[in-house]
C-alpha cells in the first residue's frame, strides 16, 4: 500500500535512501524552514504582542488581568483552529504555555508597578 502511495505522489526515488542522507538533508533544511516559515510567524506573534501591550497598557493600565486575558483571547484562536484542522496537538500545549507565561507576566508587571509607586 505504501509503495503505491509513494509512486502516486512521486516519492519512490527516495525509498532507497540511507538514513545518513536523510539526516544530513534534515540538518540543512531546518534553518531554511525556520527562516521561511518560523521567522515570519514569530515576527507576527511579537508584533501582535507589542501592539496589544501598547494599546492595553496605555488605555487601561490599572486592569492588568483584563489586558492579559484579552491578549490571550485575541492571540489564541488561530492556534485552536490549526490544532484541530491539522490535528497537530502540540498547538494545545503551546496555548497552555502561553496562558502560563501571561500569568507570570502579570506578577512581573505588578512588581514593576509596585517599584514605580515606591520611588
Q: Which tags fit this structure?
A:
119 residues; mainly alpha; 5 helices; elongated
Could you please describe the fold and organization of this structure?
With 119 residues, the protein is mostly helical. The protein has one domain (19-118). 83% of the residues lie in helices and 0% in strands. It is built from 5 helices and no strands. Helix 2 runs antiparallel to helix 3 and helix 3 runs antiparallel to helix 5 (90-118). The protein starts with a helix and ends with a helix. The mean pLDDT is 83.
Structural class: mainly alpha
Largest pleated sheet: none
Whole-number count of domains: 1
> Uncertain runs with pLDDT below 50, 5 residues or more?
none
On the 0 to 100 scale, the average pLDDT is 83
> How much helix, percentage-wise, in residues?
over 70%
* Percent strand: under 5%
The number of helical elements comes to: 5
Number of strands: 0
**SSE string:** HHHHH
Distance between the termini: 72 Å
Rg to the nearest angstrom?
22 Å
What's the multimeric state?
single chain
Basic shape: elongated
Amino acid at each position: 500500500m505504501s509503495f503505491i502511495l509513494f509512486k502516486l505522489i512521486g516519492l519512490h526515488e527516495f525509498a532507497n535512501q540511507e538514513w545518513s542522507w536523510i539526516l544530513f538533508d534534515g540538518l540543512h533544511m531546518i534553518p531554511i524552514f525556520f527562516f521561511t516559515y518560523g521567522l515570519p510567524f514569530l515576527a507576527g506573534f511579537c508584533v501582535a504582542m507589542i501592539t496589544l501591550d501598547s494599546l492595553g497598557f496605555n488605555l487601561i493600565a490599572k486592569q492588568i488581568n483584563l489586558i492579559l486575558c484579552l491578549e490571550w483571547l485575541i492571540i489564541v484562536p488561530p492556534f485552536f483552529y490549526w490544532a484541530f484542522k491539522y490535528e497537530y496537538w502540540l498547538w494545545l500545549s503551546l496555548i497552555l504555555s502561553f496562558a502560563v507565561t501571561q500569568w507570570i507576566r502579570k506578577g512581573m508587571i505588578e512588581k514593576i508597578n509596585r517599584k514605580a509607586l515606591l520611588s
